Amino acid sequence: MRTTSNPAFRNLPSGGGYATFQDQPSTAQGYPYAAGPVTTERPMTIDDVVTKTGITAGAALLAGIATAYSGAVFLALPALIIGLVLSLIIIFKQSANPGLILGYSIAEGVLLGAITVVFDNFVSKGGATSFLEGLGFQAIVGTGGVFAGMLIVYKTGAIRVTPKLTRWIVGATIGVFVLMLANLVTSFFNTGGLGLRDGSPLAIGFSLLVIGVAAFSLLLDFDAADQAIRSGTPSKYAWYIAFGLMTTLVWLYIEIVRLLSYLRQE
């Protein structure tokens, strides 16, 4: 049984078969989808996933831009708490409720907008003079580029999601989070911690590593969505898959903003 680094894609209900992201069957051995009851609900399609993902990402983008333009950095903590609570509810209840998922996306958008303002102020002493010159625009373009690039890689089969690759990505994800935690803990006793977040060449290299792991995690997300479509998962769960993709995109965006801040420190 294959595992995944994204808890949002575990134990999706399944049904009959349907169209997939790619024509050829995946070489992977399947996510642990729970067998669901027979249902007359329309099976999920690619269009369902694309539409719902676009809506959730768009909601986060608008919320982030509004927060950044208003400079409402004080909303970061409330948004973090709300996003965390909603994500736990969605994951543990396996909820495909559009209201909860859009609420999560908006909360994450506010959080990302506030984080972007903080990084902009840090590297530019007062913030970016325009949206196009700020870290936010560059990070949005970078995140979108990575997402599109990994989707092309997945659809063309240039990199196939095999059990071996899955284990490597899951292991790498655990590894980078352990290093982040160790860096945080040691920073309480030693300024700079392990040097993974201080803007040094080591920190730049670590950010590139994390961005790479996040990018490859998108391959697992695409494969999970592909298998959900193939297994005939009810169409309403397209919202749940959109939520899963958003969690990885949020992680990717934050790391790209962090890397850009290192490269643009004055």
From TrEMBL:
Q: Which Pfam families match?
A: BaxI_1
Print the keywords alphabetically: Membrane, Transmembrane, Transmembrane helix
For the keyword Membrane, the answer is: yes
* Residue ranges crossing the lipid bilayer per the database entry: 72-92, 99-119, 131-153, 165-189, 201-225, 237-254
| Keyword Membrane belongs to the record | yes
Protein name per the record: Membrane protein
Query: Source organism lineage?
Result: Bacteria, Bacillati, Actinomycetota, Actinomycetes, Pseudonocardiales
